[in-house]
């Protein structure tokens, strides 16, 4: 089975709304944040699921990339 590749349009479908899973892309990897309570409804501190958030996690997040450890990787992101 090949790894799923997401572009901006495809990733936007996974916004955590209307029963959809919540995915976010960081540094080329797409993570499933659906089961993370802080991402309930596809929103977390003003950020929306279904987007590429590398600059947010590197520049604004107090926890940085360490929070990504343990999250399922569901594919790669290619703009």
UniProtKB/TrEMBL annotation:
InterPro entries: Cyt_B5-like_heme/steroid-bd, Cyt_B5-like_heme/steroid_sf. Coiled coil: none annotated. It comes from the Bacteria. Pfam families: Cyt-b5 (PF00173). Residues 6-78 form the Cytochrome b5 heme-binding domain. This is Cytochrome b5 domain-containing protein.
């Amino acid at each position: 089975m090949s790894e799923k590749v997401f572009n901006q349009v495809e990733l936007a479908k996974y916004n955590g709304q209307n029963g959809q899973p919540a995915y976010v892309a960081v540094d080329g990897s797409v993570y499933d944040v659906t089961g993370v309570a802080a991402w309930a409804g596809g929103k977390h501190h003003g950020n929306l699921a279904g987007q590429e958030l590398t600059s947010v996690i590197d520049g604004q997040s107090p926890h940085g990339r360490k929070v990504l450890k343990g999250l399922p990787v569901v594919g790669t992101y290619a703009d």
